[in-house]
Amino acid sequence: MVAVVTRRRLSQQQAEASAFEIDVLEGLHDIPKHVPAKYFYDAAGSRLFERITEVPEYYPTRCELRILRQHAADIAKLIPSGAALVEFGSGSSRKARILLKAAASKLAAYVPVDICGEMIEQEAAELRTDFPQLKVLPVTADICNPFELPAAAKDASARVGFFPGSTIGNFEPHEAAGFLRNAANILGRGAVLIIGFDLVKSADVLNAAYNDAQGVTAQFNLNLLTRINRELGGTFQLDTFEHHAFYNRERHRVEMHLASLKRQKVKVAGDTIDFRAGETIHTENSYKYSIESLSALARGVGWLPAAAWTDSRKYFAMQTFILGA
Ligand code: AVJ
User: Is 324 exposed, middle or buried (0-12, 13-18, 19+ CB in 10 A)?
Assistant: First the structure.
């Protein structure tokens, strides 16, 4: 309890480092071992993810961009005139730009929300140049928690949420429901929500997408250990851990793990962690939904499914929801 009170006084960067340490130690002392997937995205991890989106086996980003480009005008029609567009976990705003081009004239504001403040401030400056009439109002926040919208977004005729990238797949289904509830509270009456998500499909396609031949996904996974070594004084030897990724059919998710190739002890932030030979750290779940299963989840927390679009192979979907009264 004392530690929690003191931490409140720390700078944001220190507070984030502390959350990382707490979450990593808690996860590595748990059985089975796990680390939250959000910690993949340090500078190196973000660059590796960008490279993943370009490997031939990883289809989601290309599919989503194709759907957005093809249906931007239809999606824009669902945006009420004078609305504010709020993007959850906006990153580089690459996908939002497609919507902004199609809907800029009817939007009162664009509110990119991301945990990485530096990234969105930089992006905001570029968006202001490219869309001079649009108010770009970035918010630095963890999208899993409640946060305040800027006044101009609260005063807009309505708020439209945008959650692309199948980021929703990183949540446990109950967390995804929690996120949707949080989004409903933040966006309020008359809200529309646009979600991009990866569809359930053949295990072969999924297994290939998370085990690319160039090994970029393996590097992305192992980079988590590099980050722990650097930021938390870890002693992970990277050549003694191996990337494992597979589709878990029963749970509709791709799991990523890091498997210890031998029995060993590793130090992290002064603690000793024991590994059995073959024991894994579960580093990510990437849940796959059908239009029906995501609709059911959303309905449960008050969002009514509206239009949905998919690519020709039905690999990926973009679906819109309207907040019920
Ligand atoms: C960014 C969460 C959508 O789950 O496919 C890519 C992350 N992990 N390859 C996904 C990821 C391994 C990605 N998301």
Answer: exposed
